[in-house]
Amino acid sequence: MKKHWIAAALAVSVSGFAAADGGPGCGVGAMIFKGQSGVGPHVLAATTNGTLGNQTFGMTTGTLGCNANQPVTSMASVFVDENMEKVARDMSRGSGEHIETLATLMNIEGADRDLFKQTVQSNFDQIYTSDEVTSSEVVTNLAKVMEQNQALAKYLG
Questions:
Q1: For an engineered disulfide with 99, which of 61, 84, 90, 121 has Cβ 3.0 to 4.6 Å away?
Q2: Helix (H, G, I), strand (E, B) or coil at 98
Q3: How far apart are CA 23 and CA 126, in angstroms?
Q4: What are phi and psi of 80, to 5 degrees?
Q5: How far apart are alpha carbons 34 and 63 in whole angstroms?
Q6: Could you say which DSSP state residue 95 is in?
């Protein structure tokens, strides 16, 4: 019986996290854990949302911090958010573990990896526009840079 409860709790946790698409997004869980970062608060917020089933209500009504007109957050966005300085360092160099991980999360094929790394390095100042730039601005700026390159633009959709 105990195994069934553990499996059920894990299923709710995973489904809540999957529904959140890499983060808690909106809903009661996101409101409770607002401003906290890291895997723990994200999982707890997503689990809260999944357990209460409130994100759909929030998106439909525009309440609970939900805005259905915003783009869906990807795992790449969460990764950038949690690794801003390390991603910046690797982008400025055009190499490193964090830029490789970002490329993987964005599903950039091996044949386009070098182009991706060269592009972000040569456009670093357009991606990381200031010391106060936010992770969402970095992701938006990265998308703008990638849109300008036909080989990289295909990874945005």
A1: 90
A2: helix
A3: 26
A4: -60, -45
A5: 15
A6: -
